[in-house]
């Protein structure tokens, strides 16, 4: 991801949760819980941001490493970690497009509302594929371009502002990118028509 985008997120990190609180409570909280509940074993969360997912993990069955490219966002995530008293949680500043983990390191990878911002989605997905163990799963909760043209009109308008403010695209075709990378897509759940999708994908070998 670009350093400019990372700086933008760092600059708003202290107010980011406040800014997103309404949509988080009304729309996304339940979906985060559902996505995170699927993970167990050695888990990597990419684009962890301010740590919104941390409270929803089952600590008895999860060994979690969380990364983000923004120093400011990680500082907020560190406070959440401290409040949860989750000492074993590893927080690292790292870009999903270029991760420092060995091949076949994780049982699960979690990505929630991340690939709208990744500058090179294919490279990010390639890295996720690399660090997953054979048979491991990637859980993607992402918003993306709809199959409905009327909805895309609104997304196009939103995209005009979101790309300029935070480098966030509303028109990514993330599900197609996941499939093209060679993941076996096991299931897709659509929400808000199909703008938000929960995609469960497996690395076969």
Tell me what the structure shows.
The protein is α/β, with parallel strands linked by helices and 205 residues long. The chain has a single domain (3-202), classed as Rossmann fold (3-Layer(aba) Sandwich), CATH 3.40.50.150. It is built from six helices and seven strands; from the N terminus they run ααββαββαβααββ. It has helices spanning 3-11, 13-36, 71-84, 121-131, 149-166, 174-180, and strands at 41-46, 62-68, 90-93, 106-112, 132-143, 184-191, 196-202. The longest helix has 24 residues, at 13-36. The protein is globular. The mean pLDDT is 96.
The tally of helices reads 6
Q: Sheet bearing the most strands, described?
A: 7 strands, mixed
CATH class: Alpha Beta
Rounded mean pLDDT is 96
Query: By CATH's scheme, which homologous superfamily applies?
Result: Vaccinia Virus protein VP39
The rounded Rg comes to: 16 Å
Number of domains: 1
Oligomeric composition of the shown chains: single chain
Q: Name the shape in a single word.
A: globular
Strand arrangement, major sheet: 3-2-1-4-5-7-6
List keywords for this structure.
seven-stranded mixed sheet, Rossmann fold, 205 residues, transferase, 40% helix, single chain, SAM-dependent_MTases_sf
SSE order and pairing:
Elements: H1 3-11, H2 13-36, E1 41-46, E2 62-68, H3 71-84, E3 90-93, E4 106-112, H4 121-131, E5 132-143, H5 149-166, H6 174-180, E6 184-191, E7 196-202
